[in-house]
Design goal:
The protein is mainly α and 236 residues long. The chain contains seven helices and no strands. This is EcsC family protein.
Length: 236
């Protein structure tokens, strides 16, 4: 009986691990799919929307808006964790991960605009750069194309899966009913987004190009099917 129990436990763990890996792979692919659809404002648009602000002040605005946005997403998931029917939580958690990723990708893209270091290339190429920045939690050095993978290949997906796993581990407390709620979910996401932004900004400051020295850049092309990002602060 003990041997049978051990065999069943091993088989259950194996199947559970396979399902978890498949879920992570799906989320990574989903985030890669939505990245080119995230609407991004170029520097000219940002300066028109927030007149009179310098680079650091404008970056502060963007970070505050993104943190408020991911906080709203986290509050919704935290509140859902208090409901008495937990089977829907994997779907809820997947929605949070993709929602937060979209907001943070938008933030990263616009921070690169603010610091005058737009990655070269078309929409797909830049989206790959921002995905690399998001998954590695670092700024993109546009003078070193090797620092990001424009092919959206296997290495990119592996990095994304690792980043998603980290976020899922951080979000596990949100799956425990009666222990946390909307407030904790909001605080966790706000903290993580601000921490990500601080790392990105530290890297971008090292390669920042002052606005007065920037060559005239064309407006950013709009995605064919922009991702709808509802109920976000005006800073986003």
């Amino acid at each position: 009986m003990r041997e049978k129990t051990r065999d069943l436990a091993r088989e259950g763990a194996r199947r559970g691990g396979s399902r978890a890996r498949a879920g992570l792979a799906y989320l990574a692919d989903r985030i890669i799919d939505i990245a080119p659809r995230v609407p991004v404002r170029d520097l000219a648009s940002l300066r028109r929307q927030f007149p009179g602000l310098g680079p650091e002040e404008l970056a502060d605005k963007l970070v505050a808006g993104a943190a408020a946005g991911t906080s709203t997403v986290g509050a919704g998931i935290g509140a859902a964790a208090m409901l008495p029917v937990p089977p829907a939580m994997p779907t809820e958690l997947a929605a949070e991960i993709t929602g937060v990723a979209a907001i943070e990708l938008k933030l990263i893209a616009e921070l690169h605009e603010v610091y005058g270091v737009r990655p070269p290339g078309n929409l797909k190429t830049r989206s790959a750069a921002y995905l690399s920045s998001w998954s590695g939690e670092r700024g993109i050095d546009v003078m070193k194309p090797s620092s990001y993978d424009t092919a959206l290949g296997g290495r990119m997906k592996r990095e994304l899966r690792q980043q998603i796993m980290k976020r899922m581990v951080r979000d596990l407390p949100n799956l425990m009913p009666f222990m946390v709620g909307a407030a904790v979910g909001a605080v966790m996401n706000r903290r993580d987004t601000k921490r990500l932004a601080a790392r990105i900004r530290a890297d971008l400051r090292k390669i920042q190009v002052p606005w007065g020295e920037l060559p005239e850049l064309p407006p950013l092309e709009r995605p064919a099917e922009p991702l709808k990002m509802r109920d976000l602060p005006k800073e986003l």
